Amino acid sequence: MKQWWQRLMPRERWLVLTGTAVLLVFLLYRQGWVPLQQQLQHQQHQVVQLQQQLQWMRQQAPLIRQLKQSTPSSKRTDDIASVLSATSHTYQIIPRRIQPQGENGALIETDALPFEQLLNWLDMLEQQYGIVVQQIELQPAGKPGYVLVKRLLLGRNKNS
Fold this sequence. Notes:
- Strands 1, 2, 3, 4 and 5 form a 5-stranded antiparallel sheet that branches.
- Helix content is 58%, strand content 22%.
- The model has no long low-confidence stretch (mean pLDDT 87).
- It contains 4 helices and 5 strands.
- The protein is of the alpha+beta class.
- Strand 4 (131-140) and strand 5 (146-156) form a beta hairpin.
- The radius of gyration is 33 Å and the shape is elongated.
């Protein structure tokens, strides 16, 4: 390499050095500066999205407080097993077993039922009675859209 360099004329040496410097600057720009700029733009976009999400959450907070206060409190004191038994029949859910778990919980098993029907029932329990899912174990029931509830532990919200 040294011999090759020595055989070059001064003008050719200058050209090789200049070309190497230009190539080095280009590589640093392409491999360093461009990815940093792209990452910076991505981070700025993420910040904007998170700020919008935070603003939306803050706008929803009064509505959530209002809905929580408007939920009838008398229903929240009902025995959880009797609430589950009564409402399950309304939603055409036939529990195979309802086993109380203390005063604020119950364990349920059902036969196959439509998943959407189960979700509607669970949503109603949370909205009207403050009863939420604490644990759930589902299994496909063979028919599309149907599930078998192997274990469903429901309980009252601590905040309710």
